Structures are given as structure tokens and as C-alpha cells.
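Input record (one chain):
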Amino acid sequence: MSATRAFDAIVIGAGSVGAPAALSLAESGLKVLVVDRFPSVGQGSNKRAIGGLRATHSDPAKIRLCLRSLEVFATWEELHGDKIEWNKGGYSYVAYRPEEERVLKDLLAVQKPCGLNIGWLDAPELLEVIPDLAPDGLIGGTYSPDDGNASPLLAIHAFYSRARRLGAEFRFNETVTGLDIADGRVRGLRTDKGAYAAPVVVDAAGPWGAEVAAMAGLDVPVRPDAHEAAVTEAVARFLGPMVVDIRPVAGSANYYFYQHDTGQIIFCITPQPSIWGFDTRETSSFLPMVAARMVALMPRLRPLRVRRTWRGLYPMTPDGFPIVGWARELEGFMLAVGMCGQGFMLGPGLGELIARLAAGKQTAEDRETLSYLSPYREFKGQEKLK
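The corresponding structure, as predicted from the sequence alone:
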């Protein structure tokens, strides 16, 4: 029987959070192992993400983490040479009712002090940025020009490749079957193919995050719900920002769409009520519902033909905020779960935070960020910009 191999840190999950976490851990000089049940990097929820990247959130923690992520995405090709299809197209949350206008304007008081480049545009100003919005009833909206989009698959492969060049090891097609625990601390883990030792284990298992946490004796409130998305044929560019409409209607809490560099429109909805579970089969109800809403908001979309639909999983928490931090019950076990469908945009910033935690080098700002994302918070609030 071969001896157990030892590492400084093990990351469970090679997805939107696990891959950039492995990169940041490797950049800090640690010997890193990543274990994933799938055949290659990003084959869980990451490949189903639509690619939106924003720091436009409703709390300081996610704003700060995503501002750092945006810096990473925006400078990646220049610094490392990999094309990840970064596009600084911006985001716009539109308001056609006083209710949404009030929510969006109130959030500016949280967003701007955190350094987010965002402002409110009245209807005439917003129509200059997005001329094809339906003008009837438009009050205005927020516009954050530094937000954007990138390819989830190209980006995660870039993070993976650089992590490997820095010495990180990835073990695919391996399922974690248990943790090695002694004297109140984690010592490593076991998979269906072997055992590995490390004083730090990071749970970045996405929709399976609660399952992994249970191996540590933790009851973590994360469960996946299904969101559907689609992509159209390519047309000449006419749309800049990602457009988000947070008006709830029967069947959907909100929807959002943007035009990719290829000219295709990519769009998604947040279902209401939530569709809980691991079923990723597409439905026949998604497209008629979202198409009607999108065409009403932007009539120019009507003639576009849809090429493909798909369904992905959002690992949700009760309040819509991630769960990040050390487990009090098990020394050396770190949670980075419940990204609520925003793992791709949080990933690089969160990966750097995970590396600082593992090295014991967290800053005062890190401690404040972690207070919002603590596994031990009361989960009473609610994310306003899911």
C-alpha cells in the first residue's frame, strides 16, 4: 500500500471557486492538491454559467471581493497572455416601477463607499447608454460601467493552467469519501482512489458543499436550485451592458441578458418559486416565459432565433450570501460554499482571501468581509440583487 501523500492545503472542487483558490494558494508558495469528481476543470456548475461579472451587489463583502475579481479578469490577458473573452460592457439594473427605483437608489449608499463605480441615470440618460430599451414607463436605472463579462470555460482553464505551472496538483475523477480527523482538527481526506494529508482542507464543492461539510460534522444551510439559460444566434453588436430587470412576476423573480463578443445574446432567469434539487434537464416553460419578458423590455430582440437552452445549479443559502470562513468545530477545515450562482464573479477575489486565511495573513478588511459571510451568522437578511 502506497504511503499517504502530504500537501500544505487540499481544495475540494475544481470549479469557479476551487480553481482560483488553488491558484492563489500556489502563488503564496503552498503545496496544493485539488480533488474533483469530474473528468476535468470546471465541469460542474462553471460550464453552465453565463459569464456575467459584476461588483454591483448589495453588501460590502461581495462588492469588495468582486471588485478584486474584476481587476483580475480585466488584466489577465495583459499579464498572462490567455484570452478569456473579457469585455468591460457594464451592468444596468433598470426600473419601470417606483419600487425598483427606490431599492436601486437606496443601494447606492452602500455601493459607492465601497469604491464601486456606479450611478443612477434617469430615463433619457439611460436610453443614451441602452437605446433599445422600451421607453414607455421607464424611470431610469443604475449603470456600473466597469462590470463586464468573460468566458467561464476559458477563464477557469487559464486559472487551472497557471496553478499547475506553479506546482498545484489536480486529481480528477476522484470523489471525496471522508475526512481524516484527529484531536479536533482535520488531517487530510480520503477519496475513492486514495488518501491525502494536509493541515488545511477547503470545501469549495459547489452544489455538493453541504455534503462535504457533513463529513466534518457540520450542518451547512446550502442547497442547489436550478436556473435556466439560453443563447441566440449571432447578430451585429447593438447592446453594451448586461441588462437586469428585478421586477418579480409569476414564475420568475428577475431575468438578465447581455450581448457576447460573438454577437450572441445570452440570457437567464431566477425562477420563483425556486426549483430545488440537482435536476439539470431543461424545461419547456422557461423559454416562453423569459422571451415574453425580454421582448417587452427590448422589442428589438423579437426576431432573434434561440440556438440552445441549458440548466445549471445555484448553491443557495437562506439569505443569498456565501458562507466563507474557518469551521469552529474542526480546526483546519475551511468553508467556501453557497455562492448563490455567483461563484464565477466571486472566484478570483475569494481565492485570494482563502490564501490569506490559509497563511494566517488576513487583513482588517478581510475580517470585516468574513463577518458578513460567517458560517455562524443568523441568516436573517436577504440579498437584494440576486
